[in-house]
Amino acid sequence: MTLAGSMTTGKSFDTPRAERYAVYVHGFDLPIRDVDGSVAIGGVYSWRVVNALDRDDAIRKAIEAVKAHDQYVDEVVGGTTIMPQFEAAEVRRLREDDQRTGTALIFYIDTDEPS
């Protein structure tokens, strides 16, 4: 009796190999503290580079990386009824030799003023 199926069948049971992805995350409907101390609605953009099994996994990990970033935690006001939204504006699979590490978080505040 053999316990390792790959020894008898020749099939590999290795887990899928993670690949590097660059994901351009856009967060919006964020409650952000304005310069005068009031809460304003805004958003954030950032490239996040993650190791992931597939595109969907990369998007999930990139959004979580933004939400866990110290700058996000400092800028976004908690305890409000405003529900932040996130999307992947762009997703790229990176070559193995690509050394990108992502970018800073760039915040903006929505204004109702006409241009």
Characterise the protein shown here.
With 115 residues, this protein is of the alpha+beta class. The protein contains 3 helices and 4 strands. The chain has helices at residues 5-9, 55-68, 70-75; strands spanning 19-33, 39-52, 85-93, 106-109. A hairpin with a 5-residue loop joins strand 1 and strand 2 (39-52). The longest helix is centred in the middle third of the chain and has 14 residues, at 55-68. The radius of gyration is 20 Å and the shape is elongated.
What's the layout of helices and strands?
Elements lengths: L4 H5 L9 E15 L5 E14 L2 H14 L1 H6 L9 E9 L12 E4 L6
Antiparallel strand pairs: 1-2, 1-3, 2-4
Fraction in beta strands? 35-45%
Q: For the terminal residues, how far apart are their CA atoms?
A: 76 Å
Give the overall average pLDDT: 85
Helix content: 10-25%
The profile of the biggest β sheet is: 4 strands, antiparallel
The helix tally amounts to 3
Low-confidence parts: 1-9
Shape: elongated
What's the arrangement of strands in the largest beta sheet?
3-1-2-4
Structural class by SSE content? alpha+beta
**H and E string:** HEEHHEE
How many strands in all? 4
Radius of gyration: 20 Å
